Amino acid sequence: MKNRLFILFFLGLSCYTGYTQNEPKPVGPLPSQNQLRWQKMEYYAFVHFSVNTYTDMAWGFGNEDPKIFNPEKLDCRQWARICKEAGMKGIIITAKHHSGFCLWPSKYTEYSVKNSPWKNGKGDMVREMADACKEFGLKFGVYLSPWDRNHPDYGKPEYITYFRNQLTELLTNYGEVFEVWFDGANGGSGYYGGANETRKIDAKTYYDWPTTYQLVRKLQPNMVIWNDGGDRADLRWVGTESGYVGETNWSLLNATGDVPEQMLRHGVENGNAWVPGEVNTSIRPEWFYHEREDRKVKTLPQLLDIYYHSIGRNGTLLLNFPIMPNGLIHEKDEKAIQELTKTIKETFAQNLAKNAVASSEQVRGKNARYGANKVIDGDVDSYWATDDNATSGSITLDFRKPTTFNRFLVQEPIRLGQRVKSFSVDAFVDGKWVPIAKETTIGYKRILRFPTVEATKLRLNVLDAKGCPLISNIEVYKAPIVLTPPTILRDKEGLVQFVSGDKESVIYYTTDGSTPTSSSAKYTSPVKTDEGKADIKAITFNPFTNQASIASEEKFDISRKNWKILSTEDANANKLLDGNPSTSWHQKRNQPMPAELVIDLGKVERLEGFRYLPAQNWWEEGSIITHYQFDVSQDNTDWKTVSEGEFSNIKNSPFWQIKPFAAVSARYIRFRALKNTQEKTASGYAELDVITAN
Ligand code: FUL
What we know:
Elements: H1 2-17, H2 33-41, E1 43-48, H3 76-85, E2 90-96, H4 125-135, E3 139-144, H5 157-173, E4 179-182, E5 189-190, E6 197-198, H6 209-219, E7 224-227, E8 236-237, E9 252-253, H7 261-266, E10 273-274, E11 277-282, H8 300-310, E12 316-322, H9 331-347, E13 357-359, E14 384-385, E15 393-411, E16 420-429, E17 432-439, E18 446-465, E19 470-471, E20 473-477, E21 487-490, E22 495-499, E23 506-510, E24 521-522, E25 527-528, E26 534-542, E27 547-548, E28 552-556, E29 564-565, E30 585-586, E31 595-613, E32 625-633, E33 639-646, E34 657-676, E35 684-685, E36 687-692
Parallel strand pairs: 1-2, 1-12, 2-3, 3-4, 4-7, 8-11, 11-12
Antiparallel strand pairs: 5-6, 9-10, 13-15, 14-19, 15-18, 15-20, 16-17, 16-18, 21-22, 22-25, 23-24, 23-26, 26-27, 26-28, 29-31, 30-35, 31-34, 31-36, 32-33, 32-34
Helix pairs in contact: 3-4, 5-6
The structure holds beta-L-fucopyranose.
The site of beta-L-fucopyranose has 7 residues, from loops.
């Protein structure tokens, strides 16, 4: 009787704690149920659409007339179909972007679809999006920008009430919402109901996020919160909008305190809160639609890199489709995502680990329940575990015949914490173990790419972990080879260079705009182009497999050979004309703003715009100019301003900034940096270029 009581007591205790006697203890912090559900989604979409879609701007100013908003062919079902066919699990819509314009008829403002010609002001795009998601079996999420460049009260406490009222509308009237996005951007200036001024707020205190979070939790208890500007939410930004998270990626951060970029990229190994990374990027360079980017849609190799650098690195992927003014996703974007989907499907079609025999010498208590075969049993909840005193261990997969593969997928059961600090993978080739990879973290999912290998066995070695290592899943694949096209660079003298990362391959190119093949000119040394514009295309070609990459293309404007920088004697300044994005020049410190750059083009040119690339070492002082003025002159004395304004989203997306203006003839140009991100004087430049008329 006594014994029985003891057993009953023990069973009761294990039920109470949720663990059976032998189950490994969790290594905290742990994900919440909402975070776990979200992580399993892996892949979902963003759609960016607002009044600034019609003004060709990255950010609306808040003064755009609602009358310009008229997506005549709007079809949210097209968006949902494209995302569903791509294997995505949800869509997040910019219900309100920084312009303040609302895609739903909010009762708290007139600045919304209700004052647009679209559906005679009777439309509700958030509703149409939510309905389309439901129809296509997708989850639905909302982006509600805290920064509102239209609202007169922005900066005052009244605005917070307005913001929460809007949030309540969105989280009450449209069914279940899986994620809400609170973007932290705040460039200061705005229309603000006609005040046309700069309003800075203290993002740490102004929004009072804890109270807003309480409201959110009450209205949508199953939702995750994304917030890069305020108090720690459920998910973190990964510090870049280019589509990758660090190779080392802990789903942990510290619950309080500042988060420098490095931490966003890698998480914090000993962080005290579970805040996993979401990789957000756009299928084109910018978030909103710009016709000039129709030929800049990301290519298959670029999208594959993004896939492996997000989902393959313990992140989720939030991929954006900019909506065109007519209300549809562009066919080029659809084609690009279809190509990615096809390649992903082909890659992960046949799991070669399934038929292998798995073994390990470090099975927890020699208990079959934690045996090595748990990593290939297709059950995500079962896992291999070692004894508590171990922080390392190996699993071997025996294919029992020569097997070729080039992808390795591995998962930890993160409900028990993220543990693995380092691991390696070996292949058994010709009777000996050959190292394939040595890596750091795993987390929810890690996918490694490596050159194709033929082996009879594969071995995962967990080298170090924060507790006894646990592995829930291993998959092995042979992916089709997709060659990456070369990068094309043209220097100041007009010499063109092609750069490829693939050592086995050769490069073929054309300079007349035609599509290169293996019969085109072969690249051996830099190619001279004349001083005019140049349309260069190139492919990577593998002579052993006869396989070619898609073509890369660069359309260069006039060469900068005869340009002379007049505003400084510093020879290093020529780096901004050298055609190499990774070299840069910073203006002298403590020089009064606006910092000025004056260039003699050598002769009169017909100019239609300019391009600026910020210094790519953007952590250095003043690297990124945010506000500018661009002037032209015939004689270096009389100047005319032809373009002036902001590089809206340059801080998060420090890429080429293109500013077209009405055509004008000039020999001199003057680029003035009015402000930079750090409000320091040493403004930085990687490249400066002009756009000339044909
Ligand atoms: C950024 C915003 O400023 C961009 O416009 C875009 O919405 C992106 C997703 O977040 O920080």
